[in-house]
Structures are given as structure tokens and as C-alpha cells.
Specification:
The protein has 347 residues and is an alpha/beta fold. The protein contains nine helices and 16 strands. The chain has two domains: 167 residues, Quinone Oxidoreductase, Chain A, domain 1; 138 residues, NAD(P)-binding Rossmann-like Domain (Rossmann fold, 3-Layer(aba) Sandwich). Strands 3, 5, 6, 7, 8, 15 and 16 form a seven-stranded mixed beta sheet that branches. It has a six-stranded parallel beta sheet with strand order 11-10-9-12-13-14, with helices on both faces. The chain has a three-stranded antiparallel beta sheet with strand order 2-1-4. The longest helix has 20 residues. It is globular.
Length: 347
């Protein structure tokens, strides 16, 4: 089969590999679409051995079941599915509570569950072996749309669900970064809440794309942008900030516009730092404000997202590439040429 493989650190190739064998609890998927993410760009450029050599990339996977393991009872060949990316144990107290993304059987407090395309073989291939417990039915959904739901949609949905008590009528939510995740966050906020929405990005084209769907669209690096947001909220500040960039500048901006007891959620992996200051006169965060690094989402979150997609309450912006152009898709994403989410379509 064709696959996108990290041969060794910084060397990513489109190559031929054997079709994977499946274990008793797994299914073999014929991949129908695979999303391309900035995480894949980061993996490609990592010079250390953080990611295993020989890794097949791809953590956003849609496929059709080709074969099932002898221990699989609830799935049949021919079903269209997507793959939940947190391959958790299913038995620890966090998994039992429905928080599979916080599974305790991962080897340490800083390690998330195994993730296809990051720690185990992923879906940028013609076939992939997947635990049956990670499948979600996706019949009736365009595979290119289905493929991006397990990350580009799951991450913002999980963050929004976590702060829904703040998203009352009259509240304000700020979205920083309008790429593959941010543009879906805008749609979800509109579909799921009555909050006013402020969109921020450095790119004029990205702002223009959402201009008619938000209450205020601003360049995030413009002079006085924080003052404009605070003024928009009558001086109180934003109730929620979703930072899909996560660099120093966006973290500082988040802190400078959040309201007292507001919620900042930072899915962005920009390696930024925001000091935590406990002085009486702190100007970094107001009293009561929370700052959280959310990870992925729950299995139930993903099932709910599939329902939203079936109802067409979210409509992801997709840029399709033939599977043979996988490296070109990564190049385009890194160069800022992709609007929405790039998706590989096997022939």
C-alpha cells in the first residue's frame, strides 16, 4: 500500500508498505480520506527522536471497514466510519467516566493516550489497523468532511462544551486563529450558543471569509486590538477566549481581554508562555479567570459532532488533494496556502 512515512527524523516520504495485519480487537480500514494538520508539519520538522522512526502519519481518518478481527462483534465490513484519536484503555476511572482523553493508563501524567499518526501508525495510507473501540459511524457524510471531524472539529467542540456555562445571551466569545480549527469554532459557537463572536487572525483573507458570520472581525496583530475588544464588551471583557495559536503574543492578548471569572482555553500549540502572577495588582489575568490546555475531546463529543455534521450545522472548509500529492499538501499548509483543512483523497 502507499503510505506517508517518517523514515527518520525530518525525512518524510511517500512510500510502499505492507498492508497491516489486524489483531483480534481491531478492524482493517480502507482509508477514504485523511486530514492534514499542523501537527503533521511539526512531526516532519522534529529533529529529535520524539516521534518513532517508521511512523505512518495521519490522525484524522475516515474509512470503510475492510475486515474485522475475530473478537469484534459490533462492526461489519462495508461500514463507513471515522476514528476517535485517543486510543484509551477503556477501563480506568477516567475512561469509565467518559473522559477517554484523560486516560490514566498512558505511562505518565504528561503522556496522552496512543494517537494514530503521532505515536502509532496513522491514516495517511491506503489501509490502517484500528481498535474497534475507536470507531464512530459516519455513514451519509462526505468522507472528506468526516475525516477532519476527529481533530479539526473535535478540539474546538470539546473546548466550547467545557465553557458552555459562560456562553449565555449577551456574552462574548473571542476566537484567535481562523485556520482548520478556528473556522469551525466560529460555526460551532453560532450553532450552539447565543454569544456574540469576535474573530481574530493576522490574515485578511481568513477574516474576510468569516466576516458575515461574526459580530466583530479584527487583525490580531493590529495596534489597539485589545482595547477595541474590551470596548466592544462595554469595558467588562470577553467571557470566553479560544486561542488556536498559542504563541506568546496571543496568550498575552487573551489575558488582556478576558473578563473576571472568564475562561481562556488554549488548544493552540505555538509553544507560547504566559506568566502566572499572584500579586494584588496583577495585570496579566483578572480575578477568577481560568487558563486551561484542553486535549482533544471525548468519544461522546465526537459522536455529537457527527450529528452536527449530518444536520449540516457545521460546514467545514475543505481543500482536497489526491493522496499522491500528500507532500505537496504539507508544503502548502506550512506555507499558509491552505484555507480551512487540507484533506488527502486516495484514488
Amino acid at each position: 500500500m502507499k503510505a506517508v512515512q517518517l523514515v527518520r527524523p525530518t525525512e518524510l516520504v511517500l512510500t510502499d508498505l505492507p498492508v497491516p495485519e489486524i489483531q483480534s480487537h481491531e478492524v482493517l480500514l480502507r482509508v477514504t480520506a485523511a486530514g492534514v494538520c499542523h501537527t503533521d508539519v511539526s512531526i516532519r520538522h522534529e529533529t529529535s527522536d520524539l516521534y518513532p522512526s517508521g511512523l505512518v502519519l495521519g490522525h484524522e481518518i475516515a474509512g470503510r471497514i475492510e475486515r474485522v478481527g475475530e473478537g469484534v462483534r459490533d462492526w461489519q465490513p462495508g461500514e463507513d466510519v471515522i476514528v476517535y484519536p485517543c486510543w484509551s484503555c477503556g477501563t480506568c476511572r477516567e475512561c469509565a467516566a467518559g473522559r477517554q482523553n484523560a486516560c490514566r493508563q498512558t505511562g505518565g501524567r504528561l503522556q496522552p493516550p496512543p494517537t494514530p499518526g503521532v505515536t502509532v501508525a496513522g491514516g495517511m495510507a491506503e489501509y490502517v489497523a484500528v481498535p474497534a473501540s475507536a470507531l464512530v459511524r459516519a455513514d451519509g457524510i462526505d468522507p472528506a468532511v468526516a475525516a477532519i471531524l476527529p481533530d479539526a472539529a473535535l478540539v474546538p467542540y470539546h473546548s466550547i462544551r467545557a465553557v458552555e456555562e459562560h456562553l449565555r445571551p449577551g456574552s462574548t466569545a473571542v476566537v484567535i486563529g481562523l485556520g482548520g480549527l478556528g473556522h469551525l469554532a466560529i460555526q460551532m459557537l453560532r450553532a450552539l450558543s447565543a454569544a456574540r463572536v469576535v474573530a481574530l487572525d493576522v490574515n485578511e483573507e481568513a477574516l474576510s471569509a468569516v466576516h458575515d458570520h461574526v459580530d466583530l472581525a479584527l487583525k490580531s496583530n493590529a495596534d489597539g486590538v485589545a482595547d477595541r475588544i474590551v470596548a466592544f464588551t462595554e469595558g467588562y471583557g470577553a467571557d470566553v477566549v479560544l486561542d488556536f495559536v498559542g504563541i506568546d503574543a496571543t496568550l498575552r492578548l487573551s489575558g488582556s481581554v478576558i473578563a473576571r471569572y472568564g475562561a481562556i482555553r488554549v488548544p493552540g500549540l505555538g509553544c507560547g508562555v504566559l506568566p502566572f502572577e499572584t500579586a494584588q495588582s496583577s495585570t496579566i489575568l483578572p480575578w477568577g479567570a481560568s487558563l486551561v490546555r484542553p486535549y482533544s475531546g471525548t468519544y461522546d463529543d465526537l459522536r455529537q459532532i457527527v450529528d452536527l455534521a449530518r444536520q449540516r450545522r457545521i460546514n467545514p472548509v475543505i481543500q482536497r488533494y489526491p493522496f499522491e500529492q500528500a507532500i505537496e499538501a504539507l508544503d502548502d499548509l506550512e506555507a499558509g496556502k491552505v484555507r480551512g483543512r487540507a484533506v488527502l483523497i486516495p484514488s
